[in-house]
# Entry
Amino acid sequence: MKKTIKIQLNIEKKLILKSLSLVVLVASLAFSSTQIALADDSKLGSVSSQWKPVASDKLIKLPANIIEKRIQKDFKASAMATRMTELDVEMQENVAVIKAIIQVMPELEGEVAQNQRFELLQYKSEYLDLLQESHYLHQSALEKKQTLYKNVLDKLRLQSGKMNNNEAYQIQQAQIVARQRMEKVIEQVDQSLMHLGVEKPSSYTNEYSKNLNQIQNLKMAINRHQANQSPKMNGVEITSEEYLRQLLMSVSTERSLLDQEALMLSYMAKLVALDAQALEYELAYGDEENAEMISEVSKPSTVTTLFYQE
Amino acid sequence: MKILSKTLAIATLILSMTSTVNAKPNSLFTLENLERQRAALLDNLTTKQLNVYQREQETKNLIKRLVDLERMVLRDDRISASNSIMAKNAFQSYELTFLVHAGSESKKLPIAHWLYSLKITDESIAKSKLGAR
# Structure
């Protein structure tokens, strides 16, 4: 008898503990599901998982397609990327456990089933916490990339603007115009030299025309060189500014997709909160089927046959 | 370690190559030479030490040298990169700097083109007075 009372007390204790932890879980889930959209940056992005890229002058001097690769490489080496990889691994493990629990659930009954449901909720909650952190880090990385690309683009524009207004640039343009003007009358000048009695072309003219073809070949080789090629988008060569604008556009596309994922995350959290609430009610007020069975038994019409013999 | 030393070697190579290409002891050397020859041509026009034949022969030689120098200056990218006032003035005043090529455009001899560009005519010379500047 004493043993039975002890067991009953233990069960009650367990039940109280479980319902207490469920209340806490429900409360925390309800809180977190409303807070997902307003995620507190300071809590999610710890100092150890940060990435602080800078649009340095060295970065701006690189070709646009290399700028992108350099930023990606810098990001991969950051604490933020490391944390994101860790989170991915943790989430994979969590999903495997959740799948295993869901698979065995239909075979379980009674308290064991309840325990499994409780564990499942805990794993789901953990998974959502990890997903929320990962989501925050992705969002933060994209924001930083966007700021970085914008800074690089601004600096490039500033540089080209400065160049266009620059004295050296203007002299260069004046020289180009003067050279084009000269090219038009070269033959005419050579002929007039012959009229003046200068029949032999100078050594400069001879050597220059000999070297000109070689120079053109070398120039073409430089232009064709892969390290000197302009960035390409869909096989078409584009300017560095255009390339950076495309990169900015792809970042905003990724960001809008992340916003959609945030909505999914909040719905998943809401569902887990509702599951937890249902389990809490079940523990507190018992199973509905049992209650119905009791009510059936309490109806006189269902038990009349017990009082007479046919 | 191997990759690091390779990267360092490549960086050094790039640095040495770019410095080789950009080596410029005096980027305005050709332009200065052109200015000297141009001055000699103008001096040849006004000097009283030469007779007509000598002047003609000297002018031919000077024009021949000027043709090469003008082309060298117009093809030399180091001159425009020098960002100097001398280069700026040279390209802005094409008519006066590149006398042979500009003269060819207007179908005039270099000296005639120079006089024409500065609006110096027989009349204006006749009207002019000799004096200290």
Remarks:
- Residues 212 and 218 of chain A are 10 Å apart (CA to CA).
